[in-house]
Write a structure and sequence with these properties.
Blueprint (H helix, E strand, L loop, with lengths): L1 H12 L8 E4 H18 L3 E6 L6 E4 L1 H18 L4 E9 L6 E10 L33 H11 L3 E7 L3 E11 L17 E5 L3 H13 L3 E5 L2 H8 L6 E5 L7 H10 L6 E5 L2 H5 L9 E4 L4 H10 L5 H8 L16 E6 L3 H10 L5 E6 L2 H11 L3 E5 L7 H9 L10 E5 L6 H6 L5 E4 L4 H11 L2 H6 L4 E2 L8
Parallel strand pairs: 2-4, 8-9, 8-10, 10-11, 11-12, 13-14, 13-15, 14-18, 15-16, 16-17
Antiparallel strand pairs: 1-3, 4-5, 5-7, 6-7
Helix pairs in contact: 1-4, 2-3, 3-4, 6-7, 12-13
Length: 476
């Protein structure tokens, strides 16, 4: 790290550092840095939040590597110098039309040690560190902020800091970025009756972010810090929707959901969870309409809110269906084209199922390559979407094993889904015997195009709704 800092600064001083602008996804860039720093934040029990303006575009033209470098410096410092409390990354701006330049503002707020007033003007200097008895234990080259300032300057922007010693600091920058791709972010289509939302979260910082986002969507919002307060509010009957944190003292989110259903309250409950795979296994999971991973990605939030316009499938399943099934022979109503998707990421499964929810097919998920091979034999799919990078057995090996099977199954169309998008990667992954190739992030138009290519003619003519099933779902 020291060598890279010195080399970068030397290039800047010699005016040899060049920017390489290209289209990129800013929101994804922010979340990638959050994922990188999340283990250290969890180790220190810090709340790590992202507040990306709901109506700001995500596609811009810039140097994503250098922007990521600046974000890593600012966010890494915030985590390093914050011993308790939270770190919030706020992204706002003045959106422009496609091809126009937008003014993007990114601020990183941490409740850390803060900076003495007489040192604030020195933090962006070369090899400068805020040295005193309280923070001498923090290591660093003293070049990160200096390099960040120079990089933002090369982009035509400005960087700034606002700090109070003992309370924390906010580092931010403004940078002009041309807009690339689709500009408008569509608000979720919620049922007309969903107008009032109740937010239940013990964290003041998290409550504030969630309330602001919901208010941007035109909802009337009230926030409370505990499940007990929320149950008292629910007695009034005026709340149409509840967003609750999973981890709370005295009564957690699932216990709150059980209390609501025990009183026959049917309002949709959306739960925000840091560990979604663990939450999926909770016995009370069917009582919750959706799980939203933390830090909250706005597309996850918008997808969950959109689903609130539909009947809650899990509650209906518990009331009307037989016991949950955990095998591949679950009966599915109105199933036509059989589609198997091998995907280990639960969020990607949710997005995939939402994209295909109006199609005339039966969709099942395998969580790794080994499950995909077993389900291919029992489910007999007519089309397989195969993720390449999966635990237990990867997609390439699973594809080879399916191709080695006897009978028509060996010729089942298999479409690869992968983040491997570098030059030469296509040949590498297609060598396993795949029929088509889609790079992540997946696009709805691409998926539907592939589906239509392999869809049986009678299925298209029937136009029946999809019956969704997976190894972890209830029977349709």
């Amino acid at each position: 790290m020291i060598i890279n800092d010195v080399l970068d600064y030397s290039k800047i001083e010699a005016e040899k550092l060049k920017l390489h602008p290209e289209p990129f996804d800013l929101e994804r860039c922010v979340h990638e840095v959050v994922m990188l720093l999340q283990p250290k934040a969890r180790e220190k029990k810090l709340e790590f939040l992202v507040d990306y303006d709901l109506f700001l575009p995500t596609g811009f033209v810039g140097d994503p590597g250098r922007i990521r470098q600046v974000l890593t410096n600012l966010m890494g410092n915030a985590v390093k110098f914050t011993q308790s409390g939270h770190v919030i990354v706020r992204v706002t701006g003045v959106p422009g039309r496609e091809g126009e330049t937008a003014q993007v503002h990114i601020a990183v707020e941490g409740t850390g040690i803060g900076i003495p007033a007489d040192m604030v003007g020195h933090v962006f200097g070369e090899f400068n560190q805020v040295e005193n008895d309280r923070n001498r234990k923090f290591e660093g080259t003293g070049l990160g902020l200096a390099i960040s300032k120079r990089l933002i300057g090369l982009m035509g922007g400005q960087i700034w800091v606002d700090s109070v010693e003992g309370k924390g600091s906010t580092f931010g920058f403004r940078v002009p970025l041309p807009v690339s791709g689709a500009v408008e972010v569509q608000p979720p289509k919620m049922a007309p009756g969903l107008k009032r939302a109740l937010v239940v979260d013990p964290s003041e910082a998290q409550r504030a972010v969630t309330v602001r986002q919901l208010e941007q969507l035109g909802l009337l919002v009230r926030a409370v810090p505990s499940a007990a307060d929320a149950l008292a509010e629910m007695e009034s009957g005026r709340w149409d929707l509840v967003l609750v944190e999973q981890t709370m003292p005295e009564m957690d989110g699932f216990e709150f959901a059980e209390a609501c259903r025990a009183k026959a309250w049917e309002q949709p409950i959306l739960m925000m969870a840091t560990n979604v795979p663990h939450a999926e296994t909770d016995p009370a999971r069917p009582l919750v309409q959706a799980l939203i991973p933390r830090p909250v990605h706005r597309q996850d939030l918008l997808a969950a809110l959109s689903a609130c316009g539909e009947p809650a499938p899990f509650v209906e399943a518990m009331a009307d269906a037989p016991e949950p099934v955990g095998n591949d022979d679950a009966p599915v109503i109105n199933a036509r084209m059989r589609v198997l998707a091998a995907e280990d990421n639960r969020t990607n499964q949710l997005v995939f199922s939402k994209i295909l929810q109006d199609q005339a097919l039966e969709l099942r998920f395998a969580n790794n390559g080994e499950e995909a091979v077993a389900m291919a034999q029992s489910f007999r799919p007519e089309l397989i979407f195969m993720d390449i990078s999966m635990p237990v057995m990867d997609g390439q090996e699973a594809t080879r094993r399916i191709r080695a099977m006897d009978g028509p199954l060996s010729k089942t169309p298999i479409v690869e889904m992968t983040a491997h998008a570098m030059e030469g990667d296509r040949e590498w992954v297609m060598a396993a015997g795949l029929d088509a190739y889609l790079t992540k992030p997946l696009r709805k138009a691409q998926i539907l195009e592939v589906l239509e290519k392999y869809r049986a003619k009678e299925v298209v003519e029937e136009g029946l709704p999809m019956a969704f099933a997976s190894r972890r779902s209830f029977s349709a």
